[in-house]
Amino acid sequence: MSLSRFRSGFAAIIGLLGLATTSMPIAVHAQTAASLTATQSDPRKLGWMTGFPPPDDKVIRFTDSDYFAFPKSRWTVCHFRELMPTVGVSRGPGAAVPFVQRIDPGIDAIRFTPLGGGGAMTWQQAFDANYTDGIVVLHKGVVVYERYAGCLDATGQHGAMSVTKSLTGLLGEMLVAEGVIDDNARVETIVPELRQSAFGDATVRQVLDMTTGLQYSEDYADPNAEVWTYSAAGSPLPRPSDYKGPRSYWEYLKTVRKQGEHGTAFAYKTINTDTMGWIIARKTGKSVARLLAERIWSRMGAEQDGYYTVDSLGTPYAGGGLNAGLRDMARIGELMLEGGTINGKRLVPKTAIDRIRAGGDKAAFAKAGYGLLKGWSYRDMWWITHNEHGAFMARGVHGQTIYVDPVAQMVIARFSSHPTAGNAANDPTSLPAYSAVAEYLMTRP
Amino acid sequence: MSLSRFRSGFAAIIGLLGLATTSMPIAVHAQTAASLTATQSDPRKLGWMTGFPPPDDKVIRFTDSDYFAFPKSRWTVCHFRELMPTVGVSRGPGAAVPFVQRIDPGIDAIRFTPLGGGGAMTWQQAFDANYTDGIVVLHKGVVVYERYAGCLDATGQHGAMSVTKSLTGLLGEMLVAEGVIDDNARVETIVPELRQSAFGDATVRQVLDMTTGLQYSEDYADPNAEVWTYSAAGSPLPRPSDYKGPRSYWEYLKTVRKQGEHGTAFAYKTINTDTMGWIIARKTGKSVARLLAERIWSRMGAEQDGYYTVDSLGTPYAGGGLNAGLRDMARIGELMLEGGTINGKRLVPKTAIDRIRAGGDKAAFAKAGYGLLKGWSYRDMWWITHNEHGAFMARGVHGQTIYVDPVAQMVIARFSSHPTAGNAANDPTSLPAYSAVAEYLMTRP
Fold first, then answer.
1. ipTM score of complex
2. In chain B, which among 376-435 make CB contacts under 8 A with chain A?
3. Per-residue pLDDT tens for A303-316?
4. Taking CA atoms, what residue in A is nearest to B193?
5. Chain A residues in contact with B63 (beta carbon < 8 A)
6. Which of A352, A400, B122, B210 lies at a CB distance of 3.0 to 4.6 Å from A177, suitable for a disulfide?
7. What angle do CA B235, B240, B241 make, to 5 degrees?
8. Please, what CATH class does the domain formed by A1-180+286-445 belong to?
9. Any residues with CB less than 8 A from the CB of A173 and at least 6 apart, and which?
10. CB contact B51 to A (< 8 Å)
11. What region holds the Beta-lactamase-related domain (chains A, B) (predicted)?
């Protein structure tokens, strides 16, 4: 395998792993065959990997360059572990704590106006418009809406993409609240290997809030963008004989150069999250996968084990590697809504959740230029709307979402496989829909 | 990557996946560094993959040719999913049904004489002599002995190697008992793709009992042995550009040529089990992983999800790919001991278990020439001792074991990482130990 083929092969891996392309303000990459509707691109309808064995033209292999290109991506989002190495996030031997379910038949008909205009749309119409694979709405902890499509059902698992970051941030802020990590400490004092890198003189706080100044581009149109090197570093696949680059996520982080100053502007760059993963591992002696399992997953009444994709060192991809069941993602939202408790158990100090919900530096956020997210901020790898309900989100490419509305006491967890990675493509038919359902639920008992 | 490098890289994968090298009667391959004792080769002591990140000389990567060579193998047996793609075996959302535990302090001192002579040894001494990673003894369903070492603990998972075959066989015999599969049917009537292969005119029964006549060598000393082609076929790794061979387990099976006649002699060849996996999938519309989860794993009170390694089509490796917690392997033993029930629930028809326990054709077995297993037989991919207790076993390379003794009402589940793959290396200090503990337990209440 040549080096060029090796590198190009990672276009897919990058997408797969949910690197930030799509959460970036400008670059919204349309993908091939994007004109297919949700129904037309249904992976069950297209027959990907169906049959024993599947017919040759229905096979999706990790080594295919298009395994994560739309419409194949609509199968792949539910099957990452069948394609690459992973590490588990155990829920432990106990029973799941099932949600109470009282489906509200009125939700499908709720109407909203998409951002940027266009005709009104119903919640039900938005489901397919956003290529939704599954959505759960909790109101006061009760499931009032739940629907699956595509490759997903209630027992399946789906890539959380960059929603993973918010869990890394939650663990980080939890450790700050517990005094394990000093968020004013410089990164080099915790991970000396990063002393010569841009992260060395950044504080943990700057890493958590992504206000570091880093020479790091995730522009896929640029063949010299650093994201290519990072993706190759994180690959679990064999290296070509002429490969000279870093061989793990962390090895890459050591090479990152500074650009600008830390602490002045928000810039969404995945490598901050993996640096935070390294800080957490060094301080606790546990990977983010293990810490998440011990502190949260095994204590929140989860229905399924989760898992992370890993690099060739077995390091879980803190920036985008989590896969889980949808209801368990809703449990994370409920944990956030309840200020760190769930099922009457405290898992995370309230101060940690309060700090996240309070949000970050709005002026620093504004510099990133997200046209659809005016007035928002970013804190501990969560997106804070600062709307009247104090809503906040975890967001991942292709539409992965945890949306928490404290005033409406509502949590929405969504997995999807929108053909366009960038959430700018689905925000217009998602964010106002969430607000409309929140308003509706506030009229309900 | 050159083709020769690609092929040689699979030496490790073969070992990893538990192909039959070692369960073969003659070829017992010593591996490098085998002179290290269990204590000396303890993976925690050697520090494999310890630290964030591990030091370079402690890293084990899937792409290293020696990742499954002793002593690295003692780490790898617990971490297969971190190295390669897998598919899950879910235990479902319920609570595990914990074992009652009444540890019998007398067991460690039980003495036995190893096969082939040598001085008497205690059960406790045999633990390290066999490079045991974990062992659980159940008596009348109660845990009377449980001990872990190496990479394993009660919450960890370990490769079951060819013990996997016995689960494939159990599923197969279950489907026969239920009338879903006719074991007298010729394989070609169920999987027409195999018509031109050696399997075409074999019966399901011959496949289940491995009395097929196949041109298939698992002799690693022979570079032209078919096992190399099979292993390359099952690899999840990218193919070299000059690779022309089969690209999945099942694609390989279509190429197997006949040698001798079916139904005359037992010959332990892993490809029978993957053929059985194909038959099961075709008949049920479910992979062995899914069927195992639905019919057994989610209903037996399991403590952990299991998983299978998969090929590049996502096909679970029915011949050797299962990984699971040790206590859950003990539950499989208990299910067999109780004739298909566990925790008062029937999971498998009693007739299926009865047929397995009755054993296969002793004369056909004798032709395979296993010096240590005289008088045994092989039925439904279980090894039947035909001893006075009617004991029967699931056996996998490097010492993986489920041992069921109906008279003593005893189940032993063992995971280990013996430096020698072939069980002929550990049988002398294992089989008489099992018998000795059985005799001891029969004197207990």
1. 0.93
2. none
3. 999 999 999 999 99
4. A53
5. 237-239, 312
6. A352
7. 135
8. alpha beta
9. A208, A352, A355, A356, A380
10. no
11. 135-421
